[in-house]
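Can't paste images in this forum, so I'm doing it all in text. The chain is below; anyone willing to post the predicted structure tokens underneath?
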Amino acid sequence: MTQTHQQNDQEPNTRFCWWKTVPDFTSLKTSSSPSCLSIFKVLREMERLCSISEHGLDELKHKLMVYKAGDFWLPIGGLKKENMDFPSEVTVLLTGLSGSGKSSLVNLMYGVLGRSGLIPFSQTSNESSKYSTMILEEHNVLRSTRNGFCVYDSRGLDFNRMGECLDEVTRWMTEGVRHNEPCLFGEDVVDTSLNCSSDGFVRRKVNYVVMVVDLMDVYKAFFCGGDFKRVLAIKSLFHCPSIRTSNADPLLILTHGDMLKPMERLNCRIKICSYLGIPVTTGVYDIVSLTEQGILPEEADPVTYFALTEAIYRAILQSDRTHSPKKTWKDCFVDILSRVMCSLAYFFAMLSRVFQEWGDKNKIVELTKVSLRKNR
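Text version of the structure:
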């Protein structure tokens, strides 16, 4: 009777621990092969998430519920907290190729943190609808009026137009993001059928970037001899200088791993991390995507819930390192003075250009008169 009870207790856990089905799980510890060591590191990380997920999820969710911008800030450079310029909300931007699972990830955040019962709040793309997010969408995933952070869902990037896409991402990072603002790549024209306007919404500075990658793209490129363009696009986005905040890489979230076999899933994670030049465990999370109906393939998966919550927590920790000190009257004076000097420099440069063109015209007139005299 006791043995049967123990088996029933273990079934819910092993049901979500897909990595435990990897053959020769224990023999990887004694192997000296680099690939085996990488696999063992990932397995150990998954074991860590699994062991903490049952009791640590509520504690981590509570930290996010009571979080205010700047709560995780640490004194740096001799500055005090009252001298820092904290925003009203920290802004986390989701980026990635089209169809990577950004909108599904947002819905999962609502389900885990907003206690919405996994009700879809963001429309996702699928094979039948071919829908794609065309505007910037701000999401209060906590569904709370006291939340200290927001998540922005963005348009999926086109790997065939990465130059134009990276220009748009750079604009988001430099000028900020605003709810309902159209995402335009290159010479794209605003779709009037969207019937949306960003007027009146607050423009927010992006504090941190989370990059979403479809493991199926990695699997097809590296292990099936498929098109390598998508992986090249992933690398160009990941190493785009504009999305590196506080000299740190963006957070990497891997999706659609549940469509692969366990060993394929591990190898794809190791391959993409090696390709991007980052550790296989730090700042990388393998999170199962929602189905088209807005539910998980395995209902109430505690490991996925905790991994997602920790990923958001890590993103906010990193975000609080991006805040700048408040400007003093000296900074304002120097800023105004520099603007005035730049305006004067521009004015005199324009004036010099006008006089140069005027002098060139006078020279042409004089030369014309001289040539006419000689002809006479």
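The first strand starts at residue 84 and ends at 85. The first helix runs from residue 2 to 16.
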